[in-house]
UniProtKB/TrEMBL annotation:
<dbReference type="GO" id="GO:0016279">
    <property type="term" value="F:protein-lysine N-methyltransferase activity"/>
</dbReference>
<feature type="domain" description="SET">
    <location>
        <begin position="30"/>
        <end position="270"/>
    </location>
</feature>
<dbReference type="InterPro" id="IPR046341">
    <property type="entry name" value="SET_dom_sf"/>
</dbReference>
<protein>
    <submittedName>
        <fullName>SET domain-containing protein</fullName>
    </submittedName>
</protein>
<dbReference type="GO" id="GO:0005634">
    <property type="term" value="C:nucleus"/>
</dbReference>
<dbReference type="InterPro" id="IPR001214">
    <property type="entry name" value="SET_dom"/>
</dbReference>
<dbReference type="InterPro" id="IPR050600">
    <property type="entry name" value="SETD3_SETD6_MTase"/>
</dbReference>
Length: 482
């Protein structure tokens, strides 16, 4: 439906009309305009200065009335005067009460309202027309299979697969929940000419994901016009967004920033986000990005671990570890790693408990202390006399995983661009492979050093039997390196 609306024009407006839309609905612009930035048209629209702007004295560059903010709270308000939207949200239950569920549903509803084949459904809001100004972002969920293959060996490959699966599940939930509503059955789900398809779900997901901001005092929301600001990190971020005492959204130039006419006003989408997440959520990597910054590598509990099923059962953290590039080192995070490297002889134990309603539950213990969640395990291990041994095991485990990932990237190499592969996916995949490979190599080096340091530690020397505490014992004991 959305693709058709874009092609036929009933769901598309030129960006030149946005200022009139905004002014009509009470948005105040101060010294700025919205449109393509000459030389950077591939970024879509941007917020551009119309005159000299001085961050030390400037009033807000944009003020967006609170009623225009596309937040969960406002969607609930819209639903009070729109019985069809209300029906949808009620049918969706818990999902309709999440911000994501409410926003995606609202966006599908706005597209349906614009569709000439759908009659007498829903209530027009200012935001019904707003979505006509939004571009279709080429996020990886719209890449072809050939383009996805270029991601082999990068962490974006599994992230995109997992996202596609979760989008499919979400869409099925949406279809099942709304199927019994008669107007949904007629317009959306009719076997012959139902208008809604998975492609629509991908499109509303992309709109939300690439434009959602965390608005102070509101939470995740889409803020019309402020969401036309492109991203720049660090000192290059020109403006910040916040809310005033009345809940209106503001775009404010940062103190000390001076912008000349024709220059862009950027915000940050999150300086801590890694290259993978930037492509995943926004479909670009900043030109100045020189490190993948953050990578998540998945892990499994080895098949030969007798505690594997219990460890998987109790695990409530992401199965893997995150590498975070900080200045000239790489730090890692992931409680799952600790769960993998300990075994029964060390002190981990699992017990089956019957709950009050007769269900069976597995509980994890570390030397008699209950581990309510996996995040506690590290604190216990740190206090254990064998802490260095556990660290060494963790380091060896991660070394194996990092080397396997490097190997996968080597196998992919630098493929030639096939004729059907689009320029942007090809370029982004190549940059991501390079950035992730560099971060992995750096991590491998750091882990090698860490391993060498740990092997030198007294605890480990003793654990391996290389230090003999008891001179009298002589050398009759064999060292067991396993
Ligand atoms: C919140 S929107 C910003 C407005 C957008 N340019 C538009 O035309 O609607 C986010 C999208 O803008 C583009 N974008 C933002 N910052 C960018 C940057 N630094 N480089 C390239 N594209 C950028 C990406 O396509 C991203 O998904």
């Amino acid at each position: 439906m959305i693709r058709r609306g874009r092609a036929e024009g009933w769901l598309k407006e030129p960006i030149e009309g946005l200022t009139a839309w905004a002014t009509f609905h009470g948005v105040v612009f101060n010294g700025i305009k919205i449109g393509p930035l000459p030389g950077y048209e591939d970024r879509g629209s941007a917020v551009i200065a119309k005159r000299n702007l001085n961050g030390d004295i400037e009033e807000p560059l944009m003020t967006i009335p609170k009623e225009l903010v596309l937040s969960r709270q406002n969607i609930e308000l819209f639903a009070k005067s729109d019985q069809h939207l209300r029906e949808l949200l009620q049918a969706l239950g818990d999902f309709g009460r999440t911000t994501r569920g409410a926003v995606l549903t609202f966006l599908v509803m706005q597209a349906s309202l614009c569709c000439p084949d759908i009659k007498d459904i829903g209530v027009h809001t200012p935001l019904t027309d707003y979505i006509k100004y939004l571009p279709d972002e080429l996020l990886p969920t719209f890449w072809t299979e050939e383009e996805h293959e270029l991601l082999e060996g990068t962490t974006l490959r599994s992230a995109t697969r997992a996202k596609m699966n979760s989008l499919l599940r979400e869409f099925e939930t949406f279809r099942t929940a709304t199927g019994p509503i008669s107007w949904c059955a007629r317009y959306w789900w009719d076997e012959e000419d139902g208008l809604l398809t998975f492609d629509d779900w991908l499109r509303v997901d992309a709109m939300y994901r690439s434009r959602a901001l965390e608005v102070p005092g509101v939470g995740d929301a889409m803020v019309p016009c402020i969401d036309m600001a492109n991203h720049a990190s660090g000192h290059a971020t020109a403006a910040l967004y916040e809310t005033d005492d009345d809940g209106n959204a503001l775009l404010e130039l940062r103190q000390g920033k001076y912008i000349s006419p024709g220059e862009e006003i950027t915000i940050t989408y999150g300086d801590d986000k890694g290259a993978c997440e930037n492509i995943f959520s926004y479909g670009f990597i900043e030109d100045t990005m020189s490190s993948a910054k953050v990578m998540f590598l998945n892990l499994d509990v080895p098949d030969d671990d007798p505690l594997r099923p219990a460890k998987i059962y109790v695990c409530n953290t992401a199965p893997g570890f995150r590498l975070v590039h900080k200045e000239d080192t790489v730090e890692w995070e992931g409680d799952f790693v600790w769960l993998v490297v300990v075994n029964e002889e060390d002190g981990i134990d699992f017990k089956v408990r019957q709950t009050v309603d007769g269900e069976k539950e597995i509980q994890a213990f570390w030397k008699e202390s209950e581990l309510n969640d996996a995040s506690k395990i590290r604190a216990y291990l740190e206090k254990d006399p064998l802490w260095e041994v556990f660290q060494l095991r963790a380091v060896v485990l991660m070394q194996g995983r990092v080397h396997a990932q490097i190997e996968r990237l080597h196998v992919v190499g630098s493929p030639e661009r096939e004729g059907t592969v689009r320029e942007r996916p090809w370029h982004l995949a190549a940059r991501l492979r390079t950035l992730e490979l560099e971060l992995l190599r750096k991590t491998a080096e750091i882990l090698d050093n860490k391993r060498a340091t740990l092997l030198d530690s007294e605890t480990i020397q003793r654990y391996l039997g290389l230090i003999d505490d008891d001179d009298d014992k002589g050398d009759e004991e064999e060292v067991d390196f396993t």
